[in-house]
Each structure stands twice: as structure tokens, then as C-alpha cells.
Amino acid sequence: MDMVAATPAAHVLVFPCPVHGHITCMLHFATGLLAAGLHVTFLHSDHNLRRAAAASSPRLRYVSIPDGLPVEHPRDVGRIVELMESLKTKASVAYRSLLASLLLGDATGGFPPVTCVVADGIMSFAVDVAEELGIPALAFRTDSACSFLAYLSLPRLLELGELPFKDGDDLDEPVRGVPGMESFLRRRDLPSQCRDCSDPDNDPLLQIVYGFTAHSGNARALVLNTAASMERAALAHIAPHMRDVFAIGPLHAMSPTAPAAGGSLWREDDGCLAWLDGQADRSVVYVSLGSLTVISLEQFTEFLHGLVAAGYPFLWVLRPDMVGASQSATLREAVAAAGKSKARVVEWAPQRGVLRHRAVGCFLTHAGWNSTLEAAVEGVPMVCWPFFTDQQINSRFVGGVWRTGLDMKDVCDAAVVARMVREAMESGQIRASAQALAREVRRDVADGGSSTAEFKRLVEFIVELSTTAVAAIKDEEYVASYVNI
């Protein structure tokens, strides 16, 4: 990246929601800020900092606060609302105290006072607390622009009567209430929270997701990990609702340097890359449903039988907590027995390395935004089986807009798995579309590309905000009034 020379006083606190995909994405963002010459404090939860291998550097440090949940809490997808509520009501108190102390800076550690906060957009309290303390704050969303626009359009969907759904309604009915998507969006493609909202006015989850999306308009700017070549139309429809919008992705492809350490909450099995070395070009199906997806034993069995029937070698990421209460060792044995020498199972994989490996022919994925971007950059065809939230609309874009893969949502049947995997592996049209999109995205992140230009503009924006913040921070009475609250 050809970045501006940032003022030494610019010091950004980066605060992701404490779940794996959000941390990974925002660490790539932190890496970009470091490359631009800024100081960065990366805020983990205590629980996650214990799991992550986090090593500080001269302009990067890791700090943590409690998330407010008991140590034994599973923090899994089934209780994600509990985590969000605890962050808002309990962690926010510790966050406020930490921010107030960081207004003083750390002369011994070489860190100036924090002058800007970039907080995960699904934690609106983090933006509000920073602004209350006089620190300018930006909202960063780790999901796609198309899903953000869908959440932002919820009032319009309700006004048109396209929400709520009724039992027995046709999920393939077109949806007209999301601007720019009238020609291809269906009910089944809306974010998963839309499916269970029989009473939208009293649906806490729907109110939460709309609330933090609309709240991003209060932040100094909205930052999105996306590229203009992928989501130009959605970005144009979002912009009038925000104070400013920066499309700066895919972040993992923006810099040749490795991301700042301290992100992965799972130990990657590098041995799978050596296994891929022994496979023929474009012969392997890579299967990973992300860090949160949970499937039943019956669904596992359908996936397994479908993969075996497809007839290709496969590399499958099976987290220990992924298949109900089943034992991971039993699942590995089942895969080994079914796939014989053609299968490899790991608990976690170095995904970017896997996707760029010559042996990988397609990616069976949950269509999480990080995974979607990583496949897009490498030009790998996808078969999408979305699990929840934004994955539903991401998979529709893969199958119906970019045409870089197939959308398998709402189906878990061995025959369908086998058919779609074969098509993704063998279709010249899908592969050509995937490679064409990869070329466009790579232009966006190259020198002179739209994402690189936007990242430079963002750094300049943060430096300008920081200059104003530094002037206020130099007022000792101003700082003391917050440190002593």
C-alpha cells in the first residue's frame, strides 16, 4: 500500500465484536493502519485474549476487558444474544473506564493518547461511549454491503408488507423493498432474522439488528470491508444514509504483509497444505462452514454422503463443537471410512493458503463474508450453504449476481450436495465468472485501485480527526474531567 505519512499523534483503538470472524477482519484493518504509520491499540475480550497468540510491537498493543459473561459460558452461536446483551450492559462499563485512562497516553510504552476509535458497527454503544468522552468514532461493519443495505431497508420491507412472513408463505416470492435488488432478491435471500419475525414490533433480535445498522449513521463514517467491483450499487444506496462511507476491501488482499498476530482463536492445521501438495490440480473440494455454524448429525451425514458421491477428494474443516453433541473423533472416523484415502479432516485450516492452492477446485462454504471475499480474490468457484444472518444474501449474490458459484440454501440432501459440487468443479462458465471477478477485485486492491484509494482517504480522514482530538486532549482539565468519572 502506498500510504500517507501519518502524524505520530494519530492513535486508533480498534474494537471488534469478540467473535472469530470479526476479530480476523479487523486485525487485517489494524495491519493496514500500522502500515500507514498510525499507532493501534487492539481491544480483545479477556476470554479471547487468553486464546489468541497476541504479540505486541512498537506501534501495536493488545488490551482486553471482560465481556461480562461467566468463564464457563459457551459463547456459541445459540447464545449469541446473551453475549451481545452482556457487552452492552456490562462490558461497556469497563470499556468506558479503559478509554478514559487511554486519554492520558502511555509515555513509558511510547503510545500517545487515543485519538480515534474504530468500533464494530454491531456494538453501537462503543461508538456512543467514545463520542461521549470526546473521542471521534467510526463504525466498521465486517459483513457485506448488500446485507447492510438489507438490514437498513427493514422499515421499507415492513411498509410494503413484505415482512413479516406467514407460515406456508412461498420463500421464492420476490422482494421489492431492498433498492437495487428488486430483480433478483427473494424472501429466502433476506438475512435470517427476517424469517422468524411474526411480530416485528416486538421481535428483540430484529430490533437489535436494525437498531445497530441505522445507528451507523451517527458515527463519523461507516467503514466496509468490500470492493466497488463487487458491491458498487449497494454502496451507492447506503451512502445517503451515512455521514461518509469507505469501501476498503478485501482487506486481507490489501497488503503483502501478514496480518497482525493475535486473531485466530483456533489452531490451524498446516499439515493439510502438505496433503494438498499430493493432489492433482483443481481436484479437491474444500469444505468449511466457518467458525460459528452448527449442524445436526443428520446434516453431517447428508454432507458426507454427498461429498463421497461427488467422487472428488475433499478437505473438510470440522470444528470439535460443530456437530451437535457428537464427538469429533467419531466424525473423523466416519469421514475416513467413507472417503478412504481421498479425504482429509482438520479442526481448523489456514484458509487463505488453502484457497490459493493449485489443488483446490471449489469451495463448499457457509458464505460468511470473510470466506466469500477470500474465494473471490482467488477465483475459486463456490457452493454456498448459508447458516444465518448475512450469509443468506451473500449466497444469493454468489449464485445470482456474480455467478461465481451455486446457492444451496435451505437444502441439505446428499444428492443435491453431490450434484452441485460436481457442477462447481466442472462448469467452465462458473470458473470463468469466478476468475473474471478475481481480476476485478485484484485491480481494486492494487496501487491506483478503488479500495487502495479509499484506504488512503480513510487514513487521511482519521489523521484529520486525530489532529482535532489532540488539541482537546492537551487541555488537562478536559482530560481530568473524564479520567475521574
UniProtKB/TrEMBL annotation:
EC number per UniProt: 2.4.1.-
SUPFAM superfamilies for the chain: UDP-Glycosyltransferase/glycogen phosphorylase
UniProt GO MF annotations: quercetin 3-O-glucosyltransferase activity; quercetin 7-O-glucosyltransferase activity
Pfam family membership, one: UDPGT
Stored PROSITE patterns: UDPGT
Broad class of enzyme this protein falls into: transferase
Keywords: Glycosyltransferase, Transferase
InterPro entries, alphabetized: UDP_glucos_trans (IPR002213), UDP_glycos_trans_CS (IPR035595)
PANTHER family in UniProt: GLUCOSYL/GLUCURONOSYL TRANSFERASES, GLYCOSYLTRANSFERASE
Family the entry assigns: Belongs to the UDP-glycosyltransferase family.
Protein name per Swiss-Prot or TrEMBL: Glycosyltransferase
Species of the source: Oryza glumipatula
